Amino acid sequence: MSPALRIGMTGFGLIAVCYGFARFAFGLFLPEIDHDLDLGPALSGVISGGSFAGYCLAIIASSILTEKIGARAVAMAAAIVAAVGMAGIALAPTPVFLAAAVLLAGLSTGLASPPMAAAVALAVRQEKQDVTNTMINAGTSAGLVMSGTAALAMAGQWRLAFLAFTVVAAVLAAAAIFSLPRERAREKGRAVGWPPMTGSLLRLIAAAFLMGAASTALWSFGGQLVSQRLGWGPTGLGLLWICIGVGGMAGAWAGILVARFGLDYVHRAFLAPMAATILVLGVAVPTPALVVIAGLVFGAAYVMLTGLYLVWGVRALSDRPATGLMLGFLTIAIGQTAGAPLFGLLLDAFGAAPATMAFAALALLAGLFQDHGATLRAAA
Q1: Residue ranges of domains in the chain, CATH in brackets
Q2: CB 292 within 8 A of CB 232
Q3: Which terminus of the chain has fewer CB atoms gathered within 10 Å of its CB, N or C?
């Protein structure tokens, strides 16, 4: 098996578990969790924001640790943390316990991505790196499909679902031992610490922050909005999550599209549909067919954009791929940390329509920030 395929498959599975299960499945099961533990919209937003905050801390630590101790150890740690956090969610007796478990599970996602970027840089030929990285990033979509399927198969038993997710995470920890390189991505004498803020990195940070904040309208509250407006129960919400995951499979093509059309063009092309899907859930007259289409489009747009920010960051810091990825993904998470509680407050105070209109505008604003240099490099 080639290094690209071996690392790509392991990374795809790890990202599926950490992002699709440990991080975003909370939004899928939120209506049931809210019913059982009486969270309320404001507390739900705070807990969801706590997950994103944990991600922010973990991804910084992960990029540093990956450069110091290697990709394999950090990837294994990500899977183990995901398993422990999801076990805590499954067993949570109170909202406070749940918040702590969601925070711990959120740490796994921050730990997972930098070691995979470093492993790709170490073992995969340069011409295949963008494609391999964006294929790994699309693992989020597979995780969403599986979590949505679990919600259908387990008839809304969210505790049982998170216990099953825990077992899968443990299996991925073992897989990392055999498939990822042990050596460090950083050569002796290479720069460490926070990188200099070039124009390209600053524009990446601004765009990623706005897109991340906007995305929480669906990630944290999409299930709740659909449940309120259409009266969907666990079966309907599971189908929505599957649609988001299926649509997100298109994100595996991000590297190919960036190479063909340039980073700037692809960026703008997928922010507009993200904004439209946010509006559909809060402003348009919803129908089941429209919600399904919105799920497919949102999944494609979100995973494509995260893959694009991955490529943007790795290219901007080609000698430190784990740190380059960290900057883009950290900023997405900071945006989500701010966006989740803000959306919860807007939803409480003004209702669905004003809240979703404001967050759709944030998605469109992200398109003002472009990496013109990356466009030229892609076209060269």
Answers
A1: 1-182 (1.20.1250.20), 196-379 (1.20.1250.20)
A2: no
A3: C
